[in-house]
Design brief:
The protein has 640 residues and is of the alpha+beta class. The protein contains 17 helices and 32 strands. Among the domains are: 187 residues, Phosphoenolpyruvate Carboxykinase, domain 1, CATH 3.40.449.10; 232 residues, Alpha-Beta Complex (Phosphoenolpyruvate Carboxykinase, domain 3).
């Protein structure tokens, strides 16, 4: 304790008072400087297998996870299926600062201060792991300290990978501790009926995160995402919920995509390769009724350089004021869901990266044995014959080939939606074609409603189309919805050269398509570069919420059938099924957009929402925020 305090004192670094108290009175603590040290701690030193367990009053010994040392890192499997996915209802706010989120006292019926003191007391009775981190990149973000039970080393390892761990001796002078994470997993059982709970307590100079569970999603990852969003609220910018990729066409054209969406919306998949069939063709989809498969020939794919996987910083300091948005990765590692990888060869790029990595990786919900090699297609089962839908691997961005480490300027912002099958007998909102072009005003609306979508694999969900909330990052934000709505709209208004697209995954009408739509969109629009769409190639969509639909699409000589572009042309759907699905979509928009009708919403925002609620057509959205046709479409006069 004295050594650490002396080092910090010499560097003019001040620990939060409660952290000082915990470290002064705890049974013991170790300060960690590297991820490799935490990987060793995850299995309690030289052990090959380690069980994370606690004595719970009234329950006895409870096992949280079984951790294995594997040849490619650390593999952790939760003993309870519920803990293998993020519960969307984890957050509670324990302060009086502005927030639309549920307050701890309202949610649980008592003041958090008493539980906070219990948490501090509990930590003082433990052997602890402590380390410093920086959430963000290039000095944009939040410095902080993590305090966790020593036996939860795998959790600490995940946090140290996702947000850069900083060795004590390398802490810069005056390092500001703006956030702190306290991990107390036993409270899940003693206070919260086994549920995942993460409590945020904000003040002017410290954002505290109390993690009462050991799944990194809502705390180590999304909890610190909340700290970044809080910082952005104060300073007038957002951390976008997106993946970003620079794509290089076979003709050396470079196009940068920023793909946003709720959990399961295809962000990580935007960084994946297209997998060919055994005969070399590419399957667009398979008809769920007839079993028909539609394949196309593809001589050569684009190459790509990954930029971000899930979170992108958009502060004013990196903007180029050129009409486009510039972003920077907010993470030090990527929390990659691998549910779409079910066999060897499904994703050769990620398989090669994870089988023999340069640095130890953290696997979650992947089958393993001590000293084996954890394989990303070998998913843990929640029940016999039922695979966990949320297998994960944490990959340091530093080992990702061709990763881009500097800010990049975005050309196209796409938004992904998980869509169910749609037929005229069973209509749903699965009426989105391969991709749509959105006017800026509609692009903003989709980011407000952010549908969580069909069969979400990442979170505990009852199904249906529930909303992930503003920006699709609302579950992680601590402040006011309207604040973020205004920030997102201002960002769109300040970047008039951006193009916006909407893309489904899983189904297009009666066709099972997986994530092919966004990958084919990536291939097509990269090949076009700045070339504009012909005026006869698009038209107003039958459902105005979908902007413009395509009339035809050809990639490398392969024509995409019209039924994938305009769902009402499918014999299984027709206009009857399409229109019924469109009405469901409108009902969802009407319900969600009413939440933003507050006096604080900007005047432009009010216009757009009023237009939507009154059933506006595409042209009306364009009259509110004009689309810059110079960069988006080719009109007839351009050829004259």
């Amino acid at each position: 304790m004295c050594d650490l305090l002396n080092i910090l004192d010499n560097k003019k670094i001040t620990l939060p008072s409660d952290v000082q108290m915990i470290l002064k009175n705890c049974k013991s603590y170790n300060t960690f400087d590297t991820v490799k040290q935490l990987a060793t701690a995850a299995v309690d030193g030289d052990q090959k297998s380690f069980e994370v367990k606690y004595n719970i009053p009234g329950k006895g010994e409870v096992s949280e996870a079984v951790v294995h040392k594997v040849s490619n890192g650390i593999s952790a499997n939760y003993t309870e299926a519920y803990m293998r996915r993020r519960d969307p209802d984890t957050m509670a706010i324990a302060d009086d600062l502005p927030s639309d989120k549920e307050r701890f006292s309202d949610k649980f019926g008592y003041d958090f201060d008493s539980l906070r003191q219990e948490t501090i007391n509990w930590l003082q009775e433990q052997d602890l792991a402590v380390f410093f981190y920086f959430a963000g990149r290039d000095q944009i973000g939040s410095g902080g300290i993590a305090v966790a039970p020593a036996n939860a080393g795998f959790f600490a390892m995940g946090l140290a990978m996702l947000q850069q761990i900083i060795p004590v001796n390398e802490l810069p002078e005056g390092f500001s501790i703006d956030s702190a994470i306290y991990v107390a997993p036993t409270f899940r059982h003693t206070h919260f009926n086994g549920k995942q709970v993460v409590v945020h307590k904000r003040s002017d100079d410290l954002h505290e995160i109390f993690s009462y569970n050991l799944y990194p999603g809502p705390s180590a990852k999304k909890g610190l995402y909340g700290a970044l969003l809080t910082k952005g609220e104060k300073e007038g910018w957002i951390t976008a919920h997106c993946s970003t990729v620079q794509v290089v066409s076979p003709y050396d054209n470079v196009t940068t995509f920023m793909h946003e969406g709720a959990s399961g919306g295809g962000k990580s998949e935007m960084l994946q390769n297209i997998v060919r069939e055994p005969n070399g063709q590419v399957q667009i989809g398979e008809n769920i009724k007839t079993g028909e498969k539609r394949l196309i020939n593809f001589p050569i794919f684009c190459s790509f350089n990954p930029v971000t996987d899930d979170m992108a910083l958009c502060p004013p300091s990196i903007q180029k004021n050129n009409g486009k948005l510039t972003v920077l990765d907010a993470e030090n590692a990527w929390f990659i869901r691998v549910d779409s990888i079910n066999d060897y060869g499904d994703d050769p790029f990620l398989e090669k990266l994870t089988i023999k990595p340069k640095d130890p990786l953290l696997f979650l919900n992947i089958k393993s044995k001590p000293d084996c090699t954890a394989l990303v297609w070998d998913h843990t089962e929640d029940a016999p014959g039922k695979k966990c839908p949320n297998p994960r691997v944490v990959v340091p961005r530093a080992i990702v080939p061709n990763v881009v480490n500097k800010p990049v300027t975005v050309d196209i912002r796409s938004f992904g939606v998980r869509t169910p099958p749609c037929t005229k007998e069973d209509p749903t909102y699965g009426i989105i074609g391969l991709f749509h072009i959105l006017p800026p005003a509609l692009a903003w609306l989709w980011r407000l409603v952010s549908p969580r979508g069909h069969a979400n694999p990442s979170i505990v969900d009852g199904g249906g189309m529930g909303s992930e909330g503003v920006g699709s990052y609302w579950p992680f934000a601590t402040g006011k919805m309207v604040t973020h709505a205004n920030l997102l709209l201002e960002q769109i208004l300040q970047t008039p050269r951006m193009r916006y697209t909407l893309v489904p995954n899983q189904h297009i009408g009666a066709w099972k398509v997986g994530f092919k739509p966004q990958l084919l969109m990536r291939e097509y629009l990269t090949r076009r570069g700045n070339a504009k769409l012909r005026s006869d190639q698009y038209q107003n969509a039958r459902c105005p919420l979908l902007g413009f639909e395509l009339n035809y699409l050809t990639i490398e000589g392969a024509k995409i059938p019209a039924r994938f572009l305009q769902v009402h042309q499918q014999a299984e759907v027709e206009t009857k099924g399409y229109d019924a699905g469109a009405e469901m979509l409108y009902d969802f928009f009407r319900t969600e957009l009413k939440k933003y009708q507050t006096p604080e919403l900007s005047e432009t925002g009010k216009q757009i929402i009023d237009a939507c609620l009154s059933g506006a057509g595409v042209d009306e959205y364009l009259s509110i925020i004009p689309m810059d046709y110079q960069y988006s479409f080719l009109i007839t006069n351009d050829n004259e």
